[in-house]
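## Example record

The block below lists the input lines for one assembly entry, exactly as stored, with component labels intact.
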Amino acid sequence: MKIAVRMLGIAAIILWIVILFFSVTAVYSVMNLGINIGEVQMLPSSNGIAFSLPFAITNNGYYELADLNLTTRVTDQNGTVVDITETFVPSIPRDSNVNATHTISVDLNDILSMDHVSLLLNDGSFNVEIFAGLNFARAVPVQLSTNATIPWGAPFAHFSIGTISVSPHNGTHVEARIPVSFENHAVIELTGTLKVEVYSNSNELITSGKASINVPSQQSYADRLLGYARQQDASKLTGSGKMHVIFETPVFVVEWWEQYG
Amino acid sequence: MAEAIAKLFMKEAFPRVLKATVWGTVTFLAVYWLPMMLYPTDIFPLDYVTPLFQFATIAVFFAVAGQLFSGTVIGCGFGVAKSIVVIAYFFSVSDGGVFSVSLPISELTVNLAVDISVLLLMVVSVNLINIAKNLLAAIVLLTEKSTNIDLT
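Predicted structure tokens for the full assembly:
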């Protein structure tokens, strides 16, 4: 019986030593982790914009880091999911360095097909939920989560169409000048073709005008688009109606309707 | 009579008190002072001083009590109690194995959750072994007492 008691005592001591050794080395390993997060880069991609976040993890500890998973979930102000992106690193062995990049690709066609016209015209914000998980020493799962709000600058903020002025052009047509103004609050430069189609109240196309624009970020745009209409439609231009605004770039096309008059 | 009591104190109680004091001091140094030296409070953005101090108090109390009553059934009882208290304490501190904390980092609040159920399992195992050891030790003591023949 005494031998059993002694053996149990020895087993308990060995287990305590194992627990203490693991705890101390684990804390030491965590203290020796090097995490470098680079600057977010915004790059054009084939279908929109890619936000790229490079990061490097240097594991100078005693244990492997496994199943590193970084997930970002972007939602708009209404809670609609705009993007979910996941970056997975299967293993970071001890005494090694891993460089990875978390890339959030924003497909503009997807966003614009989701009836996000308000995003084009109004400033707002996106909610970004960030989840990170890893398995420390394949024994201790660790999870991190946080929320961040990213302000959104509308590319066509304060978009307005002024009073259309009409002047004679030739014997059959009149020249219409459509004053258009907006501010580009977005981080990207707006380069493309802005087209405005003027419709009467009975949905009849009266005239259209277009212009190539190049508006840098945080700059405003104000110009008059030239259009030509038949002389008999001149009175319809000065009344009220709808305008179909189309902005085309090589990457995407956005369009929305505005009331005038 | 007084001389006999003093002799008994010097022979039985004093060594136990001395041993308990030494064990209490060593336990305090090992459980509280050494970790605080190795990991000062400014290393991690967590309040780990309070739980560490609580654990040190438990450890010192049971180290002293265990040494004062070592070799007795009461000492074994303290051993069992210590294991049960340590298990309960670790369960309480780690929220049942998933330790979670919110850390304010610049403008963000980062929620950290660490699943230490493997460690908790090891702590529970070692304390269950300790309980078994103390129960067996108590049985051994009681058996020895009941089989001893006092010839005086």
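The mean pLDDT of chain B is 86. The interface with chain A takes residues 38-39, 43, 108-116, 118-119, 122-123, 125-126, 129-130, 132-133, 136-137, 139-140, 143 of chain B (CB under 8 Å).
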